[in-house]
Target: Protein unc-79
Amino acid sequence: ERDKFYMSRIVVLELLQALKFKSPLPDTNLLLLVQFVCADIGTRLAESTIIQKHMISTLPGCTTAAMECMRQYISELLDFIADMHTLTKLKNHMKACCQPLHEDTFGGNLKVGLAQVAAMEISKGNHRDNKAVVRYLPWLYHPPSTMQQGPKEFIECVSHIRQLSWLLLGSLTHCALHQGSISCMPIPLDAGSHIADHLIVILIGFPEQSKTSVLHMCSLFHAFMFAQLWTIYCEQAAAAPSLQNQTQTEFSSSAILTGLEFWSRVTPSILQLMAHNKVMVEMVCLHVISLMEALQECNSTIFVKLIPMWLPMIQSNLKHLSAGLQLRLQAIQNRVNHQCLQGQTSGAPPFVLRKWLQCTQFKMAQVEIQSSEAASQFYPM
Model:
């Protein structure tokens, strides 16, 4: 009985050794080990240039108990995902031990794969009392105090938001690959107001804290990237089969309402940030326009409800925007008008969601690497 899952234990331990940079595994092999665990818990990695569909399908589809072996290490996976420097370390490690053919995309693929494992495990362990998410993310329901918003609280909020962003990427990737399948909701919707408090700390503290380092400078990017992901997460939750006691219609309405409440809490802080100076106005408008483009691409219901509030906010500062940003804003308005005339329904097709998730994953990985290497300011919009 002790040796029953010997093979699975070896795979999991080899994966953990590789994540600690103690094992010189090629990128393809490392992702295949992640897929081995994913298959046991009921998900799979997205196809990429590193790991193709036929490679994923060759792994066993039966129960291997890999997750039984991995369960005690979920906290370590979450630490790897949360660490700003792991992608840079991984990049350097791969250069030293093997031929790094996919150094620009591998780190993001790996973090999302690990996030899928963690997201599925947390989802299955949450039940009605959200026991799993409280165990793994004890800070989630304890946002920073409004009375204490110094440098320490600011950087902690950025770290928490980045970790949540990777978890949401893992959850949404599962949803995009398994439409109508097992629900994957690691972060309960009722945590939305507490997460909004984390974003408010970042937005209010950004003008002062952004001068400290590149990591602080990129905090606005991470805040808006999370906001995109949380909005789409609420959309996907509304479309997914409800695991709650509520009826499907009640749960769908609750999910959409959660997204709207999130933005009702965050938007005043965005306006407050724009009130600082012209430079801040253009920077914030750049992020808001990118946000609108992303939500529009995913055919978001929440976006349709928020656009009447966001457009005047941007248009009132039109004179401070570059010609390029003004053109992007006009394109958004034209598409909104077109969709209103056509009466298009909400919801992005799976392939559109997958494409958007891949782009988001790449941007987040690149910003983390740039921040870790203390490079120049980098906003991949």
The longest helix spans residues 151-177. Residues 375-381 have pLDDT under 50 and may be disordered. The two ends are 54 Å apart (CA to CA).
